[in-house]
Structures are given as structure tokens and as C-alpha cells.
Amino acid sequence: MEGIKTGFKSFDESTGGLDYRKTYALFGNKESGKEQFLYNLVQSALASKNAIVYVLTSKSYSDLINEFNVRNIPINQYLGKDFKILDDFSRTNSPNAMDNSYAKILNGPLDLTGLSVSLSGVNSDFIKDAKTVINIFDNLSNLLMYNNPLTVYRFLQFICGKAKLAGVTTIFSVDTAMHTPDIIETIKNLSDAIIDLKLENGKRSFRLSGTSREVLEFKELE
Amino acid sequence: MVEYRGLDGIPEDVDPYFGIAKLDEQLKGIPSKKIVLISASPSVGNEVFGYQIIHKNIISNVKVLVFLNRTSPQSYLTEMKEYDFPSNDNMVIIDAYSGITGIKSDETDHIKVISNPYDREEVKSKILSELKNGYGLLVMDSLSLLADFFDFQYVNSLIKEIQKISEEKDAAAVLLFTDWGYDKDNVDKIISEVNSVIEVKGIEKRVIFGQYFAVLNCDWVKANDGFSSVLFKSMKPGGIKVYFPKILVTGPTDAGKSSFIHSASHNAVSVDKLGGTIALDHGSVDFEGYKADLFGTPGQERFDPLLKMLGGEAIGVFLVIDSTKPEQFPRAIEMLRKTETYGLPVVVIANKADLKGALKKEEIRAKLHLDSAMALIQTFAEDLSKVDPNEPTKLKDEGVHEALSVLFKQLT
User: Fold this and answer.
1) Which pLDDT band holds residue B3 (cuts at 50, 70, 90)?
2) Residue B241: strand, helix, or coil
């Protein structure tokens, strides 16, 4: 079975895309292009009829939609259908924020139970509709900032384990500059595969480890 | 004092209580001085249990103290409202969340702020000193998060202190706990400190296709055969409803199956042609904290192959008969047999009991050879002048509610 295309030609050609059912950690510092990578993945995966649950921890759902719009990524046609958002950010600033047909407002970064329950629910709905599902966490760093790291590890272990059983692919982005090496190391151990991104000399590049088609030297992302 | 009416409609003096059907029937509320742990799987969650317990008590004038570290008080109150559980003056929140996110929270009469939620001594002293101020119930949301923040030793010693104050002040406590796969010894220690443990779990393979709660232990109620697990649905609005996934409504042609389903449900759908149901009826019932899906069978004999299919996996049956047509009674019994639901709880509904020529209850019992233990409930049209043979007739609530109540009681 072909992997999930990310929309980056160099990545997809050399790696075959993302493997189904795997858990990916997307590492990079602030300017490495993690968000752009995720947005391209969303566009490409939706076009190939995958369903996506997008978990937000550091921006609101309306900010995310704006980001898609300014990049001319057609998202509106998928909202509430194959694209659903779990917004774990909005309530921190607007306690009265309410759910709508495509975004569910969660209680904030400490309520990992609420996040886990909602994720299970949305995944179940997609799976019952016979869709292949990708869970995207943008980003894990915020959860790590507010919670005891051990709590986040337990959470990751639980949701990634469940995702695998259900045939769901998971990808979570981590801002490497925000965490100590021991935290990064543990997250690596909890993931099946690692995508590293970096910006150097005005060019973005990637490497991939932990899959059958690894790219161990940084290669330009285009 | 809270007045609780279960399916029997008999008031009981319970103070405080859960406000959740079946849980109050099994445990008779939460007596003062008792501590209950509600332990949930992370894919199901227990927060709605918390909202419902808080709400039922505050509207019954029990003062409730909520220790909150999972989210902000504003967000918590918004979510309670979404479940149709608005707060009132009897609810006081200890806010151990805002200090973590750095968002300023103003102390009010109903929100007590812990300035440094990372300070284990401040957290403990704030909970314990506030609890001494005349509360009937403490709800902690969440105990597992507190263990994550500090450690299990801290949580155990806190529970002991809460127990002490609860005994002095006649309070009870409900502790919400998510089991993320902690060390079993740590969880067992907490379990040994509390008076009752309720487990909340999902029935899942690739997806969750059901949720249940079960009382694992309780030191104030004796249950010789143990407590049964209870399927539930969490409704927004509405909260926790005990759930019966499939109840069959069967009976001969034109006995009033569709009328019963439409009268009992809020969203019934019939697939029919000129009044008689030719495929099936479905309706969702929401009654006294219980939710059930009713499936009606067509009465015509040519659809008998469907009966077996519809009867599969049913857990209870309403057998609807027309009280004026004894000639159809053998067909009614035959239909029950064909559904292969013999042995399941059955309630017989003698419909059209208000029509001329309707048989009396005793006559129906004799003609149907009903065991004395089998419930027989009469139902009547709400307004006979409005009966349209091509539409389901609205039946009087009285008989419909009695029938639901009797069957639900048999099912739990």
C-alpha cells in the first residue's frame, strides 16, 4: 500500500510518504518549517481522501483556517467532513468559546483526559465511515510546557497505542529548542519514526529515520 | 435534604446523592463521611459524572466545594452549562488551574484562588481549610492530575485528611480519577483509602461502541451478587443516561406499535405506507435518566422473516396488543416467539383500552395465558376525537410512562 503523500516532492519520492499506522515525531526549531510541513500534509492527504483530526495547542481554530487561507490551501470544502479540529487553545483566552460543526473546543493543556476522550470520539466517527485517519498534533511542546513530562509521556503512550490499534497514523510536532535533551530523547523512544527539519542557508531540509526507506542525510525539502 | 425519586417514584432521603440513574438506586446516594472514587479510562472520561453530581446537589441546596486543576473555573462553568447543568450560589470552586497558565483569576465569593498551584502545602491547606466551612460535598477534578503534579504519597495523605474533616463536618467527597496506566500499587493504595470505587470504561475494539459504569465496591451497601455494569450515554445537553441499546416493540397489525413508539420518543421515525408500518419504526426514549432505542416490527405476517432479524440482540420487549381484538392474541404470542426473544423481560401493552368493547385486564391475562409476574399495562389515546387511522395516535403519558418504568426496572 502506498504511503500518505506529504505534498513535498523530494520527501515523497525518496521516502514513499508516511506509513499508515505509524507514529511520527516532527522535530525542528521555530523556523524549521514544521507548520508548513503539516499544512502541506493536510492539503495532500485530504486530496487523497484521507480524514484528518488536527489538534491545536498554541493557536485557535480560526487562526488555523486563516493560515490555510493565506496560503491558498483550499480547506473550506473539507471542514466538518474530512477535516476536524480539536482546539485546545481558544478557551484559555475566551472561556465562552463554543464548538461548531468542524471545531471542538477543549478545556486547555492540562485536560489531557478531555483531549483523549474527544480524540477517541472523532477517530471512531471517521473509522465508522470507513476512512483512513491521520491525527496531527500541532504541537506537543505546549502540552509539555504545562504538564509534568511524565504525564505527557503516559498520554502519548495511550493515544498512540490506541491509534495503532485503530489503524490511525499520528504525527506530532515538537519545537526542539524548547525542551531539554532528555525530553527529546524520550519522545524519540515513544515514536516509530522521526522527521527532522532544519533551515540552513535559506533552504529547508529534512531527514527521516525509523521507516523502511530512511533518509539519514539532510536533503532539501521541496 | 435531597429528595430522590427513582423509577418507583418513591422519595428517598438521601444527602448528598449522585443524580445518576441506577447509581443512586444501587448505592442509595453518598452518605456523609464517605469518599467515592470515580476511576475512568482515558478514552471515556468521567468529567460529566462530576458535572451531574455537582448540579443535582447544588439545586437541592447541598453546598458543594469543587477543587479544580483540570481547567479554568470559567471554562468548567461553560461546559457544565452546555450539559444543561448551570451553577448556582451553592457551588464554590477552588481554582488550582489559573496559576499554572499564568492567566489572572480574581477571587470572588464563589472562586477561591490558589496562587501557586505548584506549592503542595498551599494546595493542601486551601482545600482542607475551605472544606471546614460547612460543605455537604467535595468534588475533586482531578485527583489523577494532582498525583501527576506531586505524587501518590501526597494524594494518599490528602485523602486521609479529607476523610478526617468529612467525619468532623458530616461532608462526603467524590474524587475523579483518570487511570493512565499508573503503577498498580499506587492505585490500589488510593482504592484502599476510599469507601466506594466506581469504574467508567469503554467497550472498544478499533472504535468505542459503548460505555459503561460499574460499582466495584461500596462499604455502605451490601450487594450479595455484586453490582451490575450499566451501559450509558453521555448526552449534551442532558448528561449521563443509563442506556438500553435495543428494545423491541412487537405485536399484531394495527395494535398501536407505532403509536406507542411515537408517544414514548422524541424523534420517532416510521417507514410506512398508508398508515401501516411496512418496514420498521425507530424512536429514542429519554425517561427519568434512562435512554433507550426502540425498534418496532411490522405486524403483517409477510414480514415475519424481518422479526427474527429485529429481535436479534434485543434486551427487552414491549408486546403491544389491541384490547378490542382478542382474535389477534394468538398472533401476538406467535410474534413474540418468532422474535426469539423468549426469556427476555417483556411488558404487555394493552392498547386502545379506552375503546368500546375493550377487554378488561383480567380477561386479557386469561386469554393470553399470562403469568402473574408478567406486567400488563393499559394505554389510552390522549384524545379519541383526533385519532387518524393513517397516523400514529398520541397516547396518554400515564400508561406510556408506566410501561417504560416497569420494563426499565426489569432491565436494570
Assistant:
1) very low
2) strand
β-strand pairing of B239-250 with B230-235: antiparallel
What's the rounded Cα separation, in Å, for the pair A197 and B218? 54
Residue A14 φ/ψ region, left for φ over 0, alpha for ψ in the -120 to 50 degree band, beta for the rest: alpha
Q: Tally Cβ neighbours within 10 Å of residue B334.
A: 14
Q: How far apart are CA B112 and CA A85, in angstroms?
A: 33
Q: pLDDT tens across A156-187, in order?
A: 999 999 999 999 999 999 999 999 999 999 99
Q: Is the pTM of this model over 0.90?
A: no
| Chain-centroid distance, C-alpha B408 | 11
Say how many C-beta atoms besides its own lie within 10 A of residue B158's C-beta.
23
Residue-range definition of the domain harbouring residue A140: 21-182
Judge contact between B51 and B83, C-beta under 8 A.
yes
Residue B234, CB half-sphere, CA atoms under 13 Å: how many? 23
Task: Kindly report the number of other CB atoms within 10 A of residue B20's CB atom.
Answer: 24
Report d(CA A197, CA A33) in Å as an integer. 7
Quick check: A162 and B43 CB within 8 A? yes
The 10s digit of each residue's pLDDT in B139-151 is: 999 999 999 999 9
CB-closest option in A95, A124, A159 to B207: A124
- Domain count across chain A: 1
Query: Shortest CB distance from A165 goes to which of B97, B182, B206?
Result: B206
Q: Which of A21, A99, A110, A112 has the most B C-beta neighbours within 10 Å, making it the best mutation to test the interface with B? A: A110
Residue at A133 is within a domain: yes
User: CB count, 10 Å around CB of A139?
Assistant: 22
B-interface mutation test, from A113, A128, A132, A155, most B Cβ less than 10 A away:
A113
Nearest to B41 by CA among B187, B242, B196, B140: B187
Query: How many angstroms separate the CA of residue B97 from the nearest CA in chain A?
Result: 8
Q: Is residue A95 part of a domain?
A: yes
- Residues A53 and A136: their CA atoms lie apart, in Å, by 6
Q: How far is CA A154 from the centre of its chain?
A: 18
Closest alpha carbon to B148 in A129, A149, A130: A149
**CA separation for the pair B304, A184 (Å, rounded):** 64
B315 with B245: CB under 8 angstroms?
yes
d(CA B62, CA B147): 28
Determine how β-strand B35-40 pairs with β-strand B172-178. parallel
What is the spatial distance between Cα A81 and Cα B186, in angstroms, rounded to a whole number? 43
Instruction: Please report, rounded to a whole number, the percentage of residues in chain B having pLDDT higher than 70.
Output: 93
User: Does the residue A51 lie in any domain?
Assistant: yes
CATH number of the domain residue A114 falls in: 3.40.50.300
Distance, in Å, from the CA atom of B136 to the CA atom of B405, rounded to the nearest integer, reads 31
Domains in chain B: ranges and CATH: 2-237 (3.40.50.300), 244-411 (3.40.50.300)
| B101 contacts A158? CB cut-off 8 A | no
* A154 chain-B contacts, CB cut-off 8 A: 180-182
Element (H, E) at B201: strand B196-204
**A162 occurs within a structural domain:** yes
Q: Radius of gyration of chain A from Cα atoms?
A: 16
